[in-house]
Fold FadR/GntR family transcriptional regulator.
Amino acid sequence: MLVAQRIVADINRRGNTVGDRLPPERVMLEEYNVGRGTLRESLRFLELQGVLALKPGPGGGPVVQRPDAGSLATALTLLLQFENAPFRTIAEARGGLEPMMARLAAERMTEAQLADLKSSVDTMRDQLSDQVVFLEENKRFHDVIARGSGNALFGYLVEALLGILDGSAIGIDYPEVRRRAVHKAHLRIYEAIASHDAEASFEAMTGHIGEYVRYAERKYPELLAAPIVWSNVQ
């Protein structure tokens, strides 16, 4: 762990970016003054965290990557599984967090992010008959708002929470009538954020998440009550 922390510190110190190769193994062994097994275990740990990709063969070695929320989703899933927490836990957390994110997004979102949000709303409208596209755009919409809040933690939290509570993964279906309702909710939220109305954005998101929870409670109560299990999470 200490060697992994030093490697990350050196990545930051050197200003390495995604795709950059780290020094060869022989150089790292000398620099960190550790054995080959310790170094390789440290690199493997960082690979599991999404910090590095270990490329095999000649000219391979550790390559810098950008971590995503996958490790956070795994850690949260395991913690919640050992608490025997139901999937409703994630829905309740989203209901508390996402309205706050929408409020901040109305105050902080850039023009480029607003354009991305509008693109998501329009794509969902144009592809409502395709549930795969619907699910992709649903996730994208909430991701853009979380990132647009200007708070990096919110971005990773929403990505992780959506990774755990993917309705399609746990068995929640979205018929076209429900997809249309979601699109209308997204449009209301977008319009409130685009007008920089923080309170309207908060209220619109509160209503949207509340509608989702009520729909799931009415149609799939047994799924929300089911305990979170790592093997059931994508």
Summary: The chain has a mean pLDDT of 92.
